[in-house]
Amino acid sequence: MSIPLIDFAKLTHETDAIRHQENQVLDKACREIGFFYLINTSIPNSLMNALMREAKRFFAQSQEAKNAIDIRNSVNHRGYGNIGEEQLDENGHADWKETFDMAMDFPADHPLASKYPKMYGPNQNPTDPTTVEVLQDYYVEVFSVAQKLMTAMAQALSLEDDFFTSGFTDHVSVLRMIHYPPRPTSNHDNGAGAHTDYGCVTLLLQDQIGGLQVKNRQNEWVDATPIENALVVNIGDLMQHWTNDEYVSTAHRVRASTTDVHRYSFPFFVEPDYETKVECVPSCATAEKPAKYEPILGGEWIQYRLDATYSYRDSE
Ligand SMILES: O=C(O)CCC(=O)C(=O)O
Ligand SMILES: [Fe+2]
């Protein structure tokens, strides 16, 4: 099975019939593969290009400059992650990539930062103000797309429109920039190891290099070949829990760049408020298929998964 295409312009169309029809296609994609391309999003192409440009500038800085905002110095997991810091597949190699993570910025003395210091707090920003501005602008735009997407999912699942989005007031969604440099040896082809994402959905912007692969229901790795200006969207574990396994969180991986090729990608991990209670949505449980998972707080789940994949968080 290949990766379906969803038209965001249709999903948010003013004509009910067009919206409903696209909603059915979305619902099918979420149930059958958990991955789709999203085209015609409201994000300006110029902003996507600017993000790509800033990422190249950011990662091209000296190691010293990047280490000044090392993610290991941030309790709430913001900033720069060097190669080898993250290992997504516990049975493989560490990932051959460097990263930068940002999220909503809360002052260190904010009540939520005091209560959940590992999830809320300040960002560690790049020094260049243009980079920061572009990251913030993109964050706002991509979150707006995510909200509309979750509204469409709620409609597809016969829920109130705001069933999911109402859990995103003080959300912990993360925008990440990733740089996959050329791999050093031929036996280390792991850009990002096989994994599922932790949150509700992930909206990924990628360049034209390719390398992302998705495991379909037949257990075959399918290439998520880049489509210009389209986002690749996938369901995460929290949404799978929320929907009692109706929407599926699917394994994916990134093959590392070959010699001389640099790849850049920008996942936006859509994650609710720490205190949003995630429990089986009513339309996904029946007498034959009762709720499979205990209710959990969104933040508890994300924190548990982050602690498992980052070496520096092990000891905490
Ligand atoms: O870089 C990519 O294409 C995907 C990255 C990814 O799956 C992740 O960071 O969770
Ligand atoms: Fe992922």
TrEMBL record:
Family annotation (SUPFAM superfamilies): Clavaminate synthase-like
Residues passing through the membrane, by range: none
Family annotation (Gene3D superfamilies): B-lactam Antibiotic, Isopenicillin N Synthase, Chain (2.60.120.330)
The keyword Iron belongs to this UniProt entry's keyword annotation: yes
Domain Fe2OG dioxygenase: 170-272
Cofactor: Fe(2+)
Pathway info: Alkene biosynthesis; ethylene biosynthesis via 2-oxoglutarate
UniProt entry keywords in alphabetical sequence: Ethylene biosynthesis, Iron, Metal-binding, Oxidoreductase
Catalytic activity: L-arginine + 2-oxoglutarate + O2 = guanidine + L-glutamate 5-semialdehyde + succinate + CO2; 2-oxoglutarate + O2 + 2 H(+) = ethene + 3 CO2 + H2O
Domain of life: Bacteria
EC number(s) reported in the record: 1.13.12.19, 1.14.20.7
PROSITE patterns from the UniProt entry: FE2OG_OXY
Pfam families the UniProt entry points to: 2OG-FeII_Oxy, DIOX_N
Family listed: Belongs to the iron/ascorbate-dependent oxidoreductase family.
Name assigned to this protein: 2-oxoglutarate-dependent ethylene/succinate-forming enzyme
